[in-house]
Records
---
Amino acid sequence: MKWFFSFMLLCLFPLGSLAQYTETINSNRPGASFGAFSVGTNVIQLEGGIGFGNDTHDLRQTDTDLTFFDYSIRYGLFLEELEVILEGRFLSANQSTIVGNLENQSRATNFETNTFGVKYLIYDPYKNRQDEGPNLTSYFADKKLKWRDLVPAVSVYAGANLLFGENSFMFEDEPSVSPKLAISTQNNFDRTVVVINLIADKFTTDFPSYSGIFTVTHALTSRFSVFGEYQAIISDIYSDDIMRTGGAYLFSKDFQLDVFGLINFKDTPQRWLFGLGLSYRFDQFHKDRPLESSN
């Protein structure tokens, strides 16, 4: 089993308090990683986006236009640390292939991914710090980086990929159900958040996929954030190094809009994507009083 882990992913979500339920929405969009913390007990959160892009494969002489819809439904179940997630992508691919002097056209439309999973926070280093309060004797002592800040929150994820029937985006003999496991770590440094994901996907099949994501998020203001992202993927079917960048704007404590772009670093295929998305939270049934925002 071969792992490749690479740095510089910026996963975007507004910066709030260091608890499961935050004063403002905690979205995983528009990056590819997910944070260690859940949305909060009895909170329903919808995240989705649309976009378009292109794949150009020099060796296969193909040019593919892509249109996609991403979705995610997150629900805080029973405990503040526990979250269930249903997420996926519906993809339409229009491909042109050059064979000699002829150009062949083909189209595939289906779900590229559908995954149902559970995430649980197993360690929260911030839990016992919220009662300490600020250092009133020294502003700089209160703001400076401490060794304990390097200890991250840690969550584990277990899920199942669900794809049924004939599907052009599945490899040959791929089972309809396959496993996905991940570990997420998160550090909160004032207005900057660092998230790391290590992911093993379809590892019981003939073509497993392993990826690493490193995330750094910075809030420019209480409403506007920017991000950049690097993701590494290793698989016998598709390996790549991917960069994403973009930003998000918080319209209200429960509503966020985002935009992102993607490029990669090879020509088999050469890829770019552009997308727009939103995240909305329904928190009427969450009973705990939210903590004050750190921003």
Note: Confidence is low (pLDDT under 50) at residues 1-19, 289-295.
---
Amino acid sequence: MKKQVFLFLVLLVLAPMAKAQLLEADLTDSAFASVLTCGPGEEFYTSFGHSAIRVCDSTLGLDLVYNYGTFDFDKPHFYWSFACGRLDYCLSRTTYESFLFEYAYEGRAVWEQKLRISKQELNNLFVLLETNYLPQYRYYSYDFFRDNCATRVRDMVVNCLDHRRLSPETVTDTNLSYRDIVYKNTEESLLWWRLGVDIALGQRCDHRCSNYEYMFSPIEMMHLLDTMKVDNTQQPVVDPSQQVLAETRMPLARSISPTLLFWVLFFVVLLLTLFEWSKNWRLNWLDAIIYSVTFLVSVLVVFLWFFTEHYCTKPNFNILWASPLFLYFAIAQRRSKQWMICLQMVMLLAAMVMTIGPLPQQLNAAILPISLILVCRLLSNLRHRVR
């Protein structure tokens, strides 16, 4: 028992010393650092790729990868914290061999770009990363667009430069928005996820990005780093990207377009409505389903807008079609007040216009047939109300 206590005390003393030695280590001339970019995976949250930093010094026997995209599934209230935008991500550290093994297992591609930085800047980067890895600093509040695994890598590279800066940021010719870049990184097999993202994310997603802001996307950052230069020398900041791991995963099957499916549903609802008018049917069950589902979507929109800390979910003009008024329509149905029906139809018209001309917010193309379905049923309610 005394030996165990003694060993524990020794480890307690030596552990901080070992960390301090690593933190203060002076990398040798054989050392280098690189940005690792990983291709998309099969899950939606991996479809945008991933970024990390590698620091290698063969003389010291170091080959480490620093990963800012780690989170703990076992954290209490994990899903609630994620939904509210209060989930902390953290910096993890692993060996380069283990990092490659994980991505080879998932069949995802990996590219490497060696940084063209001085020995002093390399040591700066290493100290910054090791300091960030200390328990009191490794956690951060994740933001999909402004503070994620890619932007953290970008900032580490910028901050390690010794009295140098990257070329001044400029707005690209394409002038893409955050939403446009999400679309570029969403495969055709993930069209339903794209619809969900468009419903959840608000007007801030349509902000036009500068080169610097493009770097929230790992793949975009890799392409931009290949072209960026240091301002005083106009020398590239990285060597050209080299693929170190080929993609072996099977491509995902193409999904049915939600826009096409909702157009089909619109024509079905239109036919049912015409039959209702000609045969004097009562389709209260249909209205109850359509209005209730729309109201549930409105609850999601309102929750993400007003009750979470997500930057990108506010304001959200999906509220025009996914309106809380549909709870009232689901309950009142043919007894719904005429002015409320007219108000909601004006809101639906505005939503349809925004699917064509994306101002002030770009709405998903599937919202057009969804809005027409709702207009069709509200017209039916209005017709019976007038009669």
Note: The beta strands are 32-38, 50-57, 62-70, 88-95, 110-114, 139-141, 242-245.
---
Amino acid sequence: MSPFDAAAALVVMAALLGYLNHRFIGLQQTIGLTVMGALASLAVVGADALVPGAGLGRAVREFLAGIDFHDALLNGMLSFLLFAGALHVDLGSLLKRKAAVFVMATAGVLLSTVIVAAGFKLASGLLGLELPFVWCLVFGALISPTDPVAVLGILKTAKVPPSLEAKVAGESLFNDGVGVVVFSILLAAALGAEEFSLAHAAELFAVEALGGALFGLVVGWIVYRAMKAIDEHNLEVLLTLALVMGGYALAQQIHVSGPVAMAVAGLLIGNHGTRFAMSERTREHVTRFWSLLDEVLNAVLFLLIGLEVIAIALDAGHLLLGALAIAIVLAARAAAVGLPLALLSRLTPFTRGAYPILVWGGLRGGISIALALSLPEGAIKATVLTATYVVVVFSVVVQGATVGLLAKRVVAGAE
């Protein structure tokens, strides 16, 4: 199947299932597509069990393998989704809480990684699926960052207070880039590709994450200046598209974090760019273009998340470990958010009720699954991938569906 055929099949499925959900079910779009994609895959598994000769499961697996979820998301869709999400984040509100966002996106991710690893090591041992601790750290690194795509998609309908929305969105935009860097370091250590050392890890982290932020600021500023010099909405939309595609590709070539770069560039264009470099007509076209692209890619991404259920181990042991992982990840999130909030409470203002929303609204999504799918084949991958998938589906479906209700209670309690 050619890339065009695969893309066409996904868009057709997303449109069809999205229509059915909107017309007859009424779930929030990302939740609906995830659930329906998972149910479709489970139906295929069931059909394979009833009619072994049909080969439906094999056909779906070959289709998904041809897409390469990891490559499609991390080297394709993610740059567009991060930039589109960052365009709508209020930089002023984010800067007021920059200390909290920075600490949660760095130290919070590292703390969560260690806590998840310890809990996962214990849980896997109790179930007879014990993993080496370094692989538990790899799982902790890929599951600890909140997913900006999932978080921003849910925040659109959750009615979270603006000050808190800036903090949740800002953290999610940056901690995925940090998480990918930490994951890469730990995976190399787990595979024995290089000897682990804190000094080397810190150096690589600084180059990737801080270098990505600086690179995003530079390329964003270049495009900002170019847009300020003209007033042609079609060309300015093209400039933003060139920024995302060219900037992300160049970031990968010079080995800095592309996700962090696109988040920074999107914040610059979405705030200073829309205020000082665009006419009203251009601002409207740029906003509509990226909103539409964001909706289409989100639909395809969450459908893919649902479909990937066919790739996991469906035996009782692995599924039970996944269920335990949900509690472990939530506990780690509670600690990784609570400690920074406690340390910074005297230095930065916090919205009343921020803690429960930051914990429950820290959704996991496609990035975690993409990283898990990139692991080398074997029993360890099967265990980690199944646990990752269970946590992500719970996060998107259960947490995503209820964070809006939690936000309403927080707002009502603050009034």
Note: Residues 26 and 209 are 39 Å apart (CA to CA).
